[in-house]
């Protein structure tokens, strides 16, 4: 801690006044302090802080001077004041009776001050429902060696806690002199007139009541601590009522209604069980709505129908394409993977829209430099564009449906405006004064942040706003109860048999042996057979009763350790709260599971936010409603509000209702507002993302969408297509890059790219208008084919199934997320398709249940998120390969070559050439990540970023290496007339010819080609790959490096982004895998892939709470 002296003090014993003269620059910090009758001075004397409470006589802000009164009623205190001149003044705080007056406090017999030089002596922590000061044990030992003051602290004491606001310990904060305090109607004032943490020395002071002192664990249980969890404490000192308690102290008018004393009454627990469930009285089946909330004011589109004209686009593989796209229409672009669809839509049209926008807002010079490389002659008629790409919504557990859609923001605002506040201490109603008339509790003005799970002031302090807390799990401590503790029944203690043979001073293991000897327990038996008394003390310790262990270490040193047994639970809890042992904390997490937070009961907020209600409906209850129910509640509750409440919130309710309707329109009415984003299925996340984009209310916008049907079941297409048509009707232009033929039914124009991928594509094969599209659909009589899928039997496994296999993975009574106690059998050695509409439970069954349990059976660390009664058949597998659509890398340096490892082989190949050897270029020179051979200008990226200010950074080709990534010396080394830079810029199927003589390289490249990725360039940045491409690269890597037998493959929509020709390639690879003995599970919507599977499991019938049932399961009937 760095202390700044803010002024000097002089004591006049004749006038009995204290004169404080502040140093230069602090005068403004005194502003409004004169409105308080008393203040507190904080002096640094030797190595501790002294606190003086004194009356304010006069303040001169211009002279930076205070005149204070010396108390005349205490001789000792007078001498104390005479001594303050020798201390350094470090802070001035106003005297708030609500913080400093404790009516019931008596004079302390023990006068103590716990501190140690300039060190932090402890932190404020929460253990379950206990609020504690956790002292640093090492510091405590130092304090004990100098004095035994810690023993003076007793239950029932009132003590002053001084702490350090470390997050505000910066020069920028220390220089602040004025602030706006969060008090109702408070003016701007000097920081010495507030208790703001932003001050010259960021220290805080509060009074607490000691509930319990545990000298062994160095913890002090307290009530009334006002700081944040993790607050750094540097001093504890006794409370002296005769000096610190000022009766009749006055405060400014804006806080004059505050309570005149500090209360230590414990908050009443919110009894959810006894609360009337008002939501159960709402008829959610009655969909009569209040018309005024359904107002939808469309902005008239003043633009006439023109066209977007593209002239000679030639980026990537495009071959001088020219095309006209009508405005206010839906244009569908199709073609095989790598044919140039995205190059036309995103890299040409969207990129040019960005360029034209930047031309308007940036200087010509910067614009010309930035966009010097142009891959299209010109584009006319362009509108402002929005690109909706295949990006995940995120994996942050704090992110919910409500936060992503901003619906929660509107709800928070409504509740903060008209919500009724309840005192968190006594549960009485609080009026607009923000002071409880019953117990005196003081609250600040309500703001939307009051309902934020992410705000440190308002989130539950125990679970940090997550609603769940990691709790120690007995089953994880003793993973193998059928074994004995001597034979590693618990990985926490490991092999105790070895320790028993050669005991040392390791008490963590030794205490178990000592406990067993003390209770005369035989540790040879399995853990299950051990007596309950031993198990209780094994987990929770001996409650202070000491046991002994004799030991002798390898160096011959021997002794006897006598101590209480700490117990596994207490040990893990201690490791979790030891801030100096992060590695040990990670280790402790292995023995913990998520459980509903006991403090907030899963409601994620502090009591103040949890109790706010509108006509009895609490915010935390409303956010748990699904979208349909929430919309009905909005209409019902608005009609029950009084006129003043309606006037304040009508526009908010209308805006809220419109957003809810958009989500309902895309078929997500069943999703709860508070549902975590990571728990959504791929299809649900995709539709939610589109609903959020569609809800902007903008017109005359060009929307470019990359495969919006990704993750959707064909039955869900109607919701998405309806939303896209509505977007067009609002006066917008839509370009869809899509493979699903269903979307041809809403298209006004169909552009087909091809004829093949890579250098064999890039041509505009055909352009069809609406009439021609209609004829094509009639000719092919398009049908999604799902109704034609037949299974032999709904009973699984049936006798027919057993013809193919006698072995199944059997999961019993699965209840993960929305699964309804289902029993599932998955045949081993076959290809099984898991199908069903979005949100029906496919991911819950496979990704959240089967995969985690499979990992656990292989002894791999993974938190089991699924819930089931039993699972059998996993012993048939030696490994699992889970291939999802997450990116293969988080930066532009990752590419297909580096991820699969084939580029490492290619680098060695170049290093072995005669040219490289003559130049003494090792393999490292051919890595674009190494400073040895990379281009110094772009550091091996081949491109440089340009700051686009209001938009994402733009990347343009490096002017020095022209995108080749390497320095000239490396690029001079050629193999078949190709440099290493050329290799990265070449497509995979062309590289097969280049490396046909290199067997290992050719095999890896061939695998990429087999899964339909022959069109990719080896050095294509991972950040530009679609989810489907990333997944197939992972699949190719797995297929190359593994023996397939006894491996379970789980593939999440492997056909994403593929046309029918490419789907057949993936099917062929999977068939080959099956022939080699692999078991394959695909979560899939593509009808061609599903028809190729042996076994079908369909979940449904719909999504959310209405899903989670097994609709049909069995071998597919093939013709």
Oligomer state equals: single chain
Residues in β-strands, percent: 15-25%
State the helix count.
33
Whole-Å distance between the termini?
Answer: 79 Å
CATH fold title of the largest domain: Elongation Factor Tu (Ef-tu), domain 3
Assign the CATH superfamily of the largest domain: YaeB-like
What global shape is seen?
globular
Average pLDDT over all residues: 86
Strand order of the largest sheet: 1-2-5-4-3-6
- Compute the CA-based radius of gyration: 35 Å
What structural class results from the helix and strand content?
A: alpha+beta
- CATH architecture grouping of the largest domain: Beta Barrel
Number of strands: 43
Number of domains: 5
Low-pLDDT segments, ≥5 res: 298-304, 364-372, 794-803
Q: Could you name the CATH class of the largest domain?
A: Mainly Beta
Main beta sheet strand tally, sense and closure: 6 strands, antiparallel
Q: State the share of residues found in helices, binned by percent.
A: 25-40%
């Amino acid at each position: 801690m760095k202390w700044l002296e803010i002024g000097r003090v002089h004591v006049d014993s004749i006038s009995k006044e204290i004169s404080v003269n502040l140093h230069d620059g602090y005068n403004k910090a005194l502003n409004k302090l004169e409105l308080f009758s008393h203040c507190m001075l904080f002096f640094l004397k030797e190595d501790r802080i002294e606190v003086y409470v004194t009356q304010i006589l006069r303040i001169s802000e211009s002279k930076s001077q205070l005149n204070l009164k010396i108390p005349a009623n205490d001789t000792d205190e007078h001498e104390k004041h005479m001594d303050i001149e020798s201390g350094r003044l470090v802070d001035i705080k106003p005297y708030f009776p609500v913080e400093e007056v404790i009516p019931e406090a008596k004079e302390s017999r023990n006068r103590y001050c716990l501190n140690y030089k300039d060190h932090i002596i402890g932190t404020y922590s929460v253990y379950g429902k206990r609020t504690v000061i956790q002292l640093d044990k090492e510091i405590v030992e130092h304090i004990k060696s100098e004095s035994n003051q810690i023993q003076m602290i007793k239950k029932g004491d009132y003590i002053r806690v001084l702490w350090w606001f470390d997050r505000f310990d910066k020069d920028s904060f220390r220089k602040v002199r004025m602030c706006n305090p969060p008090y109702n109607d408070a003016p701007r004032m000097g920081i010495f007139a507030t208790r703001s943490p932003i001050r010259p020395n960021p220290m805080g002071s509060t009074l607490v009541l000691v509930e319990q002192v545990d000298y062994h664990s160095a913890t002090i249980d307290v009530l009334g601590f006002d700081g944040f969890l993790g607050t750094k404490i540097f001093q504890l000192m006794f409370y002296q009522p005769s000096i610190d308690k000022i009766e009749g102290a006055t405060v400014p008018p804006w806080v004059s209604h505050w309570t005149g004393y500090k209360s230590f009454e414990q908050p009443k627990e919110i009894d959810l069980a006894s609360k009337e469930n008002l939501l159960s009285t709402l008829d959610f089946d009655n969909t009569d709505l209040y018309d005024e909330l359904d107002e939808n004011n469309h902005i008239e589109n003043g633009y006439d129908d023109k066209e977007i004209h593209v002239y000679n686009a030639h980026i990537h593989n495009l071959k001088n394409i020219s095309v006209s796209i009508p405005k206010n229409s839906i244009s569908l672009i199709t073609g095989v993977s790598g044919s140039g669809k995205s190059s036309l839509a995103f890299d040409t049209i969207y990129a040019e829209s960005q360029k034209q926008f930047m031309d308007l807002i940036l200087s010509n010079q910067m614009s010309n430099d930035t966009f010097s490389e142009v891959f299209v002659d010109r584009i006319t008629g362009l509108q402002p564009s929005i690109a909706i790409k295949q990006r995940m919504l995120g994996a942050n557990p704090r992110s919910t449906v409500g936060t992503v859609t901003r619906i929660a923001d509107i709800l928070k605002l409504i509740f903060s405006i008209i919500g009724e506040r309840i005192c968190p201490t006594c549960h009485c109603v609080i009026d607009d004064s923000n002071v409880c008339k019953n117990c005196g509790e003081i609250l600040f003005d309500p703001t939307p942040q009051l309902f934020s799970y992410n705000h440190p002031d308002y989130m539950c302090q125990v679970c940090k706003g997550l609603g769940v807390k990691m709790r120690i799990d007995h089953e994880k401590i003793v993973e193998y109860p059928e074994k004995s503790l001597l034979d590693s029944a618990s990985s926490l203690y490991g092999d105790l048999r070895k320790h028993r043979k050669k005991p040392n001073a390791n008490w963590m293991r030794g205490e178990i042996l000592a406990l067993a000897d003390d209770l005369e327990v035989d540790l040879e038996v399995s853990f299950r057979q051990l007596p309950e008394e031993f198990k209780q003390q094994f987990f929770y310790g001996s409650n202070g009763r000491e046991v002994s262990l004799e030991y002798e270490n390898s160096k011959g040193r021997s002794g006897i350790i006598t101590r209480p047994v700490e117990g596994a639970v207490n040990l893990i809890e201690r490791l979790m709260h030891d801030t100096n042992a992060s590695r040990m904390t990670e280790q402790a997490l292995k023995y913990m599971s998520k459980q509903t937070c006991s403090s907030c009961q899963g409601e994620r907020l502090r009591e103040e936010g949890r109790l706010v209600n509108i006509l009895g409906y609490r915010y935390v209850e409303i956010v748990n409603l699904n979208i349909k129910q929430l919309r009905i509640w909005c209409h019902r509750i608005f009609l029950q509000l009084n006129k003043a409440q309606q006037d304040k919130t009508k526009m908010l309710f209308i805006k809220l209702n419109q957003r809810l309707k958009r989500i309902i329109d895309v078929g997500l009415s069943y999703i709860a507002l508070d549902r975590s984003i990571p728990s959504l299925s791929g299809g649900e996340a995709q539709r939610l993302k589109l609903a959020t984009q569609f809800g902007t209310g903008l017109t005359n916008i060009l929307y470019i969408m990359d495969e919006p049907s990704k993750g959707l079941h064909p039955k869900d297409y109607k919701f998405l297509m309806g939303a896209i048509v509505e977007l067009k009707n609002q006066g917008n232009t839509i370009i869809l890059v899509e493979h699903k033929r269903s979307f041809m039914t809403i298209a006004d124009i169909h552009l087909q790219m091809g004829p093949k991928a890579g250098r064999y594509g890039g041509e505009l094969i055909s352009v069809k208008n609406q009439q021609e599209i209609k004829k094509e659909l009639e000719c092919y009589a398009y049908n999604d084919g799902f109704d034609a899928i037949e299974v032999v039997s709904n009973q699984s496994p049936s006798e027919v199934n057993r013809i193919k296999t006698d072995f199944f993975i059997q999961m019993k009574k699965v209840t993960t997320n929305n699964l309804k106690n289902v029993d599932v059998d998955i045949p081993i050695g076959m290809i099984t398709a898991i199908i069903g509409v979005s949100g029906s439970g496919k991911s819950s069954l496979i990704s959240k249940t089967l995969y985690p349990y499979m990992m656990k059976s292989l002894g791999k660390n993974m938190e089991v998120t699924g819930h089931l009664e039993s699972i059998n058949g996993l012993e048939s597998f030696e490994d699992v390969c889970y291939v999802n659509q997450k990116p293969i890398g988080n930066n532009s340096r990752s590419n297909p070559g580096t991820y699969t490892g084939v580029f490492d082989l290619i680098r060695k190949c170049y290093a072995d050439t005669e040219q490289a050897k003559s130049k003494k270029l090792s393999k490292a020179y051919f890595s674009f990540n190494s400073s040895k051979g990379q281009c110094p200008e772009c550091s091996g990226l081949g491109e440089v970023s340009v700051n686009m200010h209001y938009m994402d950074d733009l990347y343009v080709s490096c002017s020095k290496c022209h995108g080749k990534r390497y320095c000239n010396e490396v690029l001079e080394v050629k193999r078949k007339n190709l440099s290493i830079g050329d290799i990265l810029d070449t497509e995979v199927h062309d590289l097969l010819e280049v490396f046909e003589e290199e067997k290992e390289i050719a095999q890896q490249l061939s695998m990429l080609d087999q899964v339909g990725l022959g069109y990719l360039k080896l050095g294509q940045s991972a950040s530009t790959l679609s989810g489907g491409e990333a997944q197939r690269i992972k699949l190719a890597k797995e297929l190359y490096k593994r023996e397939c037998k006894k491996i379970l493959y789980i593939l999440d929509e492997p056909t994403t982004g593929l046309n029918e020709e490419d789907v057949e390639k993936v099917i062929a690879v999977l068939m080959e895998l099956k022939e080699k003995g692999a078991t394959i599970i695909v979560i899939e919507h593509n009808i061609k892939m599903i028809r190729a599977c042996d076994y079908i499991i369909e979940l449904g019938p719909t999504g959310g709470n209405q899903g989670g049932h097994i609709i049909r399961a069995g071998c597919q009937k093939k013709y």
